[in-house]
Design brief:
Order of helices and strands: EHEHEEEHEEEEH
Distance between the termini: 8 Å
Largest sheet: 6 strands, mixed
Shape: globular
Number of domains: 1
CATH topology: Rossmann fold
Number of strands: 9
Radius of gyration: 16 Å
Helix content: 10-25%
Low-confidence stretches: none
CATH architecture: 3-Layer(aba) Sandwich
Strand content: 25-35%
Strand order of the largest sheet: 4-3-2-5-6-7
Number of helices: 4
Structural class: alpha/beta
Length: 188
């Protein structure tokens, strides 16, 4: 990205408001707490995009949780399409052997990255492995993914905010917005 991002002008529409997101996070937190009552849960955040969601979600969960972080990549730089090649940039810090694990994702679109991650984590012998995503974009799905906890199903638009970025910008927006196409298609 050669131009300087304009956090307000670059958004064509607000898809999900801060209030909608926070209400959904509380609802997901209640469901997860009920489903895992009496057990400890390890939340695995997939960096960087899911960090705001994970921070809010863990505070909405009322059972004991541990957290761990992974960083995987299937995008490069300012790419808007997954390359399909998944690389683990940061692995788990602790063992998940015998633990109940919840992968916390910001968005699932093609499913390629998450499919790889699920297979990888299953190889680490967790007691259970579930998926929670804030956003689900099924129109782009290439690999079927069983989503246990879904925040919102969204249309096939390029979204930013609440952790989601374009060229490392816009993550700090408190809402999820649609990025104006000219921002990522205009070479200037």
């Amino acid at each position: 990205m050669t131009r300087r991002p304009d956090l307000t002008a670059d958004v064509s529409e607000i898809l999900l408001s801060e209030e909608q997101i926070q209400a959904k996070v509380l609802e997901l937190g209640r469901r997860i707490s009920d489903d895992f009552a009496g057990r400890e849960l390890t939340l695995v955040s997939v960096l960087k995009g899911s960090l705001p969601f994970m921070a809010d979600l863990m505070r909405a969960i009322t059972i004991p949780v541990q957290i761990d972080l992974m960083e995987v990549s299937s995008y490069g730089g300012t790419a808007t399409e997954s390359s399909g090649l998944v690389r683990i940039l940061k692995d788990l810090s602790s063992s998940i052997d015998g633990r109940h694990v919840l992968i916390v994702e910001d968005i699932i679109d093609t499913g390629l990255t998450l499919n790889y991650l699920v297979r990888y984590l299953r190889g680490k012998n967790p007691a259970s492995l579930k998926i929670c995503t804030l956003l689900d974009k099924p129109a782009r799905r290439i690999v079927e993914i069983a989503i246990d906890y879904r925040g919102f199903q969204i249309p096939d638009q390029f979204v930013i905010g609440y952790g989601l970025d374009y060229g490392e910008a816009y993550r700090n927006l408190r809402f999820v917005g649609v990025l104006r196409p000219e921002v990522y298609t205009d070479p200037d």
